Structures are given as structure tokens and as C-alpha cells.
Amino acid sequence: MDDSECRAPDRLRALPSWLLNQAALAATRLVGQAFAATAMRRYHYSLLAALDEVGPASQADLSRMTTIDRSYIVATLNDLARRRMVERAADPSDRRRNVVTITSAGRRQLRTLDRLVGNAQDELLAPLSTKDRRQLIALLTQVVDHHAAASSATAGM
Fold first, then answer.
1. How far is CA 16 from CA 20, 122, 139, 146, in A?
2. Cα–Cα distance list, 3 to 6, 14, 70 (Å)
3. Which pTM was predicted?
4. Is the pLDDT of residue 157 over 70?
């Protein structure tokens, strides 16, 4: 088989869902490769980014913000705490709940990860112009926000 015969069928290549999935696979691979040398993963980055942006938060709030399952949140926060990138403390208003805060070491690591993920984004979107990249991000944001809102509305029923 030559390369043209290994190409996905046109029927698939015409499906936005298939194309998005293929792009997501490439993005996951590129970000994973970028983070490999740091022994950090996408979940680490997501949690550090959320804490840096919103400040101290509960584990449950972090799960909702990042869409990371609560069971993975605990394991990932344990790892970040062991590395002294986050701190946990009992919530003064509800002792049953932990509040998580990013540390200065966590912020330093986040800056490194920001650079690495930025490089991975550049590699992923290499065939696109700056204008096309902005347009793609805007369109994907619309799709994601629409389905997040629909999901929230359904969950509230």
C-alpha cells in the first residue's frame, strides 16, 4: 500500500467529529512529549493553571473547573503536594473540606509548562497562519462552550 491508500476514507475526513478526534490525538501526543522531560502530565498542568488563575480552591471546585474526575484530582494533588507545588489546608468555614493553594514552586513549574505547551501548540498548528489559529480557537471555543452549557443545563434537571 502506498501513502495515498493509507489515507482515511473521504467519508471520515468530511466528519468534524473525526477530524477533531484526530487533532486531539496529535495534540495529546505532542503535549505528552513536551512534558515527558519534566515528569509532569496534563492533569498537573491543568490543576496548576486553575489554581494560578482563580486562587485557592476546593478539590471539588478544581474537578468542576478542569473537568478532571475527582478520583484523579486526589491522586494528582497528592503528587503535586509531594513535590511542594501545592499546599492543602482545612477550610476554616468547613473543616471537612480542603482548600488547595499553588506555591511559588508550583508557579515556577507552571511557567516552564506554559513554555512547553506553547511550543507543542505551535507544532500542532504549524500549517496555520496566525489569523487561522485565532479563528480556529474562536470556533472551538464556541463549540466547547455550547456543549458545556448544554451539559450544565441537563445536569441541573
1. 6, 21, 12, 16
2. 5, 19, 43
3. 0.86
4. no
